[in-house]
Amino acid sequence: MNTVGNIFSGQVVGESAKNLSERFGKVLQKRQSMTINRQDKSTSISTQLDSLIPASKISNLTQGMFVGAVSDNFDERIEQKIFHAEIVVDNASVARETKAYQKIPDILDFRDGDGNDTMQAEIERNYNQIKADVKQIVAEELSRIAADPDLQHLIKKE
Question: Residues 53-94: pLDDT tens digits?
Fold first, then answer.
C-alpha cells in the first residue's frame, strides 16, 4: 500500500532511484529509424513505453536539481503533476547576504572562573533538578488525590 501523495527528491541511487522512476510512470515515445542499403532507403516509426524520468537521470541529478510529483484535490485539478526542475541560485546575492551575517552571541558560557568547561556538570545538575521536581509534583498530586473523597478510588490500595 502506498500512501505518499507528494514526492520531492534530489539525487538518489540504486533501489530508491528505481522506485522513484517507477512511481513517476512511463510515457509513450515515438522512435524513428532509417535503414539505408544499396537498393533503397527505408524509414520506420515505432512506439515504445519509456520511463518518464529514468532512474539513471535521478541517479545523476546535480546540486539544485530535483524531481517530484504532487497530488491534487477533487476541486483543484493539477495538469502537470510530475516534474524535473532546477533551483536557480543567484550566487552574487547569496555571497552578499553571507558577508552581512553576524556572529551569534554566546548566551551561556560553560566555563568557570579558571576556564574549566563545566557543561557536563551543569547538564547533570539540571537533569537531577528536573527529576527532583517531577518526584515532588507526583508526591503532591498523590497527596491531593488521597485527600479528595471523589478521587481516592484512583489510588491503588496495596
Answer: 889 988 998 888 999 888 888 888 888 888 888 888 899 999
The grid cell for 38 is: 544499396
SS3 146: helix
Rounded to the nearest integer, the mean pLDDT of the chain is 87
Put simply, whether the predicted model's pTM sits higher than 0.70 gets the answer: no
Q: Are both 137 and 65 inside the same structural domain? A: no
Read off the C-alpha cell for 157. 490500595
Please tell me the distance from the alpha carbon of residue 154 to that of residue 145, in angstroms, as a whole number: 8
User: Hunting for cell 515515438 — which residue is that?
Assistant: 30
Total count of domains within the chain:
2
Q: Is residue 40 part of a domain?
A: no
Is the pLDDT score of 39 beyond 70? yes
CA–CA separation, 81 and 7 (whole Å): 10
11, 87: one domain: yes
All cell numbers assigned to 34:
532509417
